[in-house]
Amino acid sequence: MRVNFDKCIGCMECIPYCPAGIIIPAGNKCMIDEEKCLECYVCLRADVCPVDALEKVALNWPRILRHQFSSVTMIHKGTGIDGRGTAEMKTNDVTGRYRHGEVGFTVDVGRPGVGTTFQDVEKISMAVAKVGVEFEQMNPVTKLMADKATGRLRNDIKAERLLSCVLEFKTEDTKTIPVINALTDISKSINTVFSVGCICRCGPDGTPPVKAILDKAGIFYRPNGKINIGLGRPLAP
Amino acid sequence: MTHTLHRQGSVESLKEDYIVLVVGMDIPFGACRMRLHRKFPGIYEIVKKILLKMGILNMLRTIKKIRPRRRRQGPVFSNKKELVTYLKELKQKRTGRSVVVSGLFEEVNDCLKEINLTPHTVQFSLGIFGKKELLPGEEILEITTMCGHHMISPRLVEKLAGDIRDGKISSKQAVRVMSKQCVCAVCNESRAQKLIKTLAK
């Protein structure tokens, strides 16, 4: 996005809407630092500029990735869904993606609201890859990996900024704590935040076995989360 | 997509926050998906019928305006009674679609027991890692994390709280501005109103 200086009347109405705080006052006008803009289009959708001074810029490769990962309305070609990842555990009763004895992870890099670069995303993906994880093939970040075994991303995208993206992977439940330890270690050497989700198929009584693993290791988890209640009809007969 | 997973807040506040998503199949476009779409009714139609039956018209208007074409549909509830009624209806419809409830585990599990359902798969939030000093204050995050895609800017919340404090707008008007930014419409408006009122003080 950019501000058309000829049109801008300096009312500053758009400034608070930017999730990344990129729109700033510049004299008696507003200004967007195009290098930092995440192309989420929140300012545009808010429709608060009285003179339509907010304008889209051309989104060529790799800049288009900013929009694909930062705007919610963009549908990823690979997944066919909007948002930044896949349906992960939401459709596990249908797809059987996470099976007994496995644990899934979602790492929302840049979330909540700090934003990130693919450089930091790669640091995290490479750290967990060393533990031995399987990256989700349908995930948009996995599709940008040059090497899925090491978690290395394509070189041409690393400088791009985005509001957030989701790394999705699974592994054996015995590696739950090593993965969390790897995430804790790498969190000290990145320039952003990330939110971690831990997925587990429940036993017949509805208890997720990973809960005992987290409790035993004293790992923090919130009292709230997500529950797939098993109403989906499995794809396989 | 984890947009309703990492909602922050006290247990008391989260007791008024339940999101139910009815989700389409997570398979690539193509013949298989087309067959499934023909076999099962559209998610929007299912949700619409139930909400109409429950008389929750405000929620229906929100969903109609924002999400008729989306593959995920789901209202936000502020109490367990409505949640149980809604889940019961979904269970009876036998749609074949996956249903995911976000909320306090203890409370949601109580509701599931009431309608003889057990969790199939669970996702825990292990919280935030990394440079937490870059984050806004907890009171702001309790509001902004209700839009998991973070379309509600912390600066907007601060401005609106200031406007309420100055008597320029009501808390209801402030929430309307905020929730408009949340494209998925999973921002719990009644909870947001309570939180921004507290923030404005």
Commentary on this structure:
- The complex is a heterodimer of chains A (237) and B (201).
- Chain A has two domains: 1-57, Alpha-Beta Plaits, CATH 3.30.70; 81-217, Aldehyde Oxidoreductase, domain 3 (Alpha-Beta Complex), CATH 3.90.1170.
- Chain A contains six helices and 13 strands.
- Chain A has helices at 42-46, 64-70, 92-95, 118-129, 176-186, 210-217, and strands at 2-3, 23-26, 29-32, 54-55, 102-109, 116-117, 134-135, 145-147, 152-153, 161-162, 165-172, 193-201, 224-228.
- Chain A has a four-stranded antiparallel β-sheet, with helices on one face. In chain A, strands 1-4 form a two-stranded antiparallel sheet.
- In chain A, helix 4 (118-129) runs antiparallel to helix 5.
- Chain A is elongated.
- The model of chain A has no long low-confidence stretch (mean pLDDT 93).
- Chain B has 201 residues and is α+β, with helices and mostly antiparallel strands.
- Chain B has two domains: 11-114, no CATH class; 136-200, no CATH class.
- Chain B is globular.
- The model of chain B is unreliable at 26-37 (pLDDT under 50).
- The chains are: A alpha+beta (237), B alpha+beta (201).
- At the A-B interface, helix 1, helix 3, strand 5, helix 5 and strand 12 of A face helix 5, strand 4, helix 6, strand 5 and helix 8 of B.
